[in-house]
Specification:
The complex is a heterodimer of chains A (about 325) and B (about 180). Chain A is an alpha/beta fold and about 325 residues long. Chain A contains 7 helices and 19 strands. The chains are: A alpha/beta (about 325), B alpha/beta (about 180).
Chain lengths: ~325, ~180
């Protein structure tokens, strides 16, 4: 983590849907800060002498500094981060978090906020809603999920939002017509999406189809690094070679070898951790570099991207 | 010369040629005065039931017209504005407040070379200035009309000509 870590205690764990667990963190030393709606924190997890760091959206009221809450979905294709949170973390454990950072803040000048959540993507909107309600914003939440897996907080959101809440359980064959929904919005509506890539792409395509500028469509695209083949990385400055394990991201491997790289989202969108590549083929998995930059093969986002070759050399 | 141009500060708005957003559900055309080019563009829009032409010169209150037309407009509205530079940027401010983003506001090349002039000394705007230096309507200072355009004021910034010796007045220059 680039900034000072916050030491916290896990004060509660709640199963909020069949595959989602909610974790409440309270501070051990200093009081927690308030944060802006849409903020995320990075949770540090140490398992088998390796440290993983994943970003999770804060879902509590941004004005409430008594604790931080996150929700973690057990991922099928995970490097162990979500598995670790689900299977190892207990109430009373001490953990480290980064201070909140925000890459998904609301556009406060919008006439209306249309929120589209997919599954565990509901979390950033849970920090939007209290502040939007305090500001008397016009807001509508459309929540899509698989009832047998996700769909956490459906009842409380329904109570909180009343007629502005719409839910779609695809396991009950209830689906949202994204195209129609976006087309029937009034002037000045900004659209926010947090969920799987398919949902983001569907909303973007719906906007483009009706000449709606993409500056009115906002989405949180980052997701934790996925595993891949092991490879080694040589650092030009020191000549040191570091092995990146199957379950580890390149950024984590560098950090575990005491090489500090500035970073914020750890999910391939913010661009903070960019490194220059001297040699080796890159498997780009980020949403930050342009297609041209990716083809040039001279830059890598170590938070999510990996090597295609067995060895790469970085200019760090 | 090319290098000089590259390094020239771009403090004036740039106006692109106007293209219709074909898939917008509502097209609103606003002109300061009636004009053939605006009319022609209006006529090319095939969705006759989803467009509106609005001429400020013949409207008693253009602001309330805009509020009326845009209060029930759909999310994918496009507004086209034609007139003097001061007019189009005042309208730009109005429609932004009503919820449009920059990409939904299309502005024609200004109709004339006149500029509104914002006096940085007394904060008054003098209208329809044609040359520099120009006199501030309010504080009567003679102002150099700069190339720095303020979208917020819909005017060019003007400051005292030869502040240390205001009796030395440069030759007037018409705007090009």
């Amino acid at each position: 983590m680039s900034t000072n870590k916050i030491s916290v205690k896990v004060s509660a764990i709640k199963q909020v849907s069949p595959s989602i667990r909610e974790f409440t963190f309270t501070s051990i030393n200093e009081p927690l800060s308030t944060f802006s709606p849409g903020s995320h924190i990075i949770v540090e997890m140490t398992n088998n002498e390796k440290t993983y760091r994943n970003a999770y959206s804060l879902l509590s009221d941004p004005f409430d500094s008594s604790n931080y809450r996150i929700a973690v979905r057990l991922q099928d294709n995970s490097r162990g981060g979500s598995v670790y949170m689900h299977e190892h973390v207990q109430v009373g454990d001490e953990m480290y978090l980064s201070p909140p950072a925000n890459l998904f803040a609301p556009q406060w000048n919008a006439n209306k906020h249309l929120l589209l959540a997919g599954g565990v993507g509901i979390t950033p909107f849970m920090s939007y809603l209290p502040e939007m309600q305090r500001r008397n914003c016009e807001v509508e939440l459309h929540y899509m999920f698989h009832g047998t897996q996700t769909g956490a907080y459906e009842d409380s959101l329904k109570t909180q939002l009343g007629k502005s809440f719409f839910s779609y359980d695809s396991d009950l064959n209830n689906r949202c017509d994204i195209e129609k929904l976006i087309a029937e919005q009034p002037l000045g509506t900004h659209i926010y999406i947090c969920g799987p890539t398919g949902l983001i792409e569907a909303a973007k395509a719906a906007a483009e189809k009706i000449d709606l500028p993409l500056t009115m469509v906002h989405y949180e695209e980052f997701s934790a690094a996925k595993p891949g083949k092991s490879f080694s990385v040589e650092l030009k400055s020191s000549g040191k070679t570091i092995v990146v394990g199957v379950e580890e991201s390149l950024l984590e491997a560098l950090e575990n070898a005491a090489v500090q790289i500035p970073n914020m989202c750890r999910g391939g969108v913010c661009g903070q951790c960019v490194c220059s590549v001297i040699d080796g083929e890159i498997e780009h998995r980020d949403n930050f570099l342009s297609a041209d930059e990716k083809t040039l093969n001279t830059l890598i986002m170590p938070c999510v991207s990996r090597a295609q070759t067995e060895r790469i050399i970085l200019d760090i | 010369m090319n290098n000089e141009r590259e390094h020239e500060a771009t403090n004036r708005p740039f106006y692109e040629s106007i293209e219709i957003n074909k898939h917008s559900s509502y097209q609103l055309f606003i002109g300061e005065l009636a004009s053939d080019t605006l009319n022609e563009l209006y006529e090319t829009c095939i969705h006759y039931d989803k467009k509106q032409l609005c001429i400020a010169a013949t409207s008693p209150d253009i602001d309330s017209d805009l509020t009326f037309f845009l209060s029930t407009a759909p999310v994918n509205t496009t507004v086209y504005i034609q007139g003097s530079e001061a007019f189009i940027w005042k309208l730009w401010q109005r429609v932004k407040v009503l919820g449009l983003v920059d990409e939904q506001i299309k502005m024609f090349q200004p109709e004339n070379k006149q500029r509104d002039l914002f006096c940085v000394h007394c904060f008054t705007t003098t209208h329809e200035v044609t040359q520099t230096p120009a006199l501030c309507d309010d504080c009567q200072r003679l102002l150099v009309v700069t190339e720095h355009f303020s979208k917020h004021h819909a005017a060019y910034m003007g400051y005292q000509v030869n502040a240390e010796n205001p009796t030395e007045i440069p030759d007037p220059k018409e705007f090009t």
